[in-house]
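Quick one:
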Amino acid sequence: MSALAAARVYATRRYFKTSPPPTTFMHEDVRTAWTPAWREMLTGMQWLRLQRSPVYRGDGVPRGDGSPVVLVHGFLSGRFYLHVMRAWLERLGYRARIVDLGWSADCWDILAQRVRAQAEDAARAAQGRVHLVGHSLGGVLVRAVAARAPEMVASVTSLATPLRGLRVHPGLRLSHWLVRTHVLRERGESVFAGCMTFACGCATVRALAAPLPPTVPQLAVVAHDDGLVDCRYEADDATMRVLDVPGSHMGIAFEPIVYEALARHLAAATASGTAPRSATS
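Output:
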């Protein structure tokens, strides 16, 4: 092991040993988390494992009923990597679409408005409620949309989403700072000073603190080996169902355990009556 690799391992161990887990539902400040970023290189292995998985073929998981599912990608990532999940949901029998947010590098309130518009369109087309699935920042956006419009939402799923505070790898923190600086400069007084943080006063961030009603079941999937976000900030046992899975921050989008849990989560929401069958299904 090189000296640099050894230093990274030491920094990670020290961070998790000395930094306490979240103490409130949502922390407003942004801090550096010395997470094991090297684990993100294992994403390809998770993709390969998914391709060989019976779950990906649809074996042993509940089938869809034609309900709409809206997928939302993460910060500084295009929508392309979610095509694998979208195609799988289509094969199960759902009507899945991915919201195109570009690089998802803008005011969260503006991004959430786009997600809500797509969700409303999907709900109208299916004449029923819509399932929302978000990865990373996408999970923040779908959680806020569900809190503001619970009547149109059947269920919420967040994948490796820092719902309780931005505790991120230094490389990701630098990227966040650069994008946030650009957004504040370009949008000026049209956004709050705390834009793109949990200290922002916008309606989207305020909605995150509001609990979801029991009619909107929530699944939070935690990436135990997350290399970009402190996984302890990705869920709250008191307010949501939590699933802890192996894999990296990006690799969670290809983890077979996640696919099985998602299929059962969507089916359970339908069976409970929160997601009525569409008139055309």
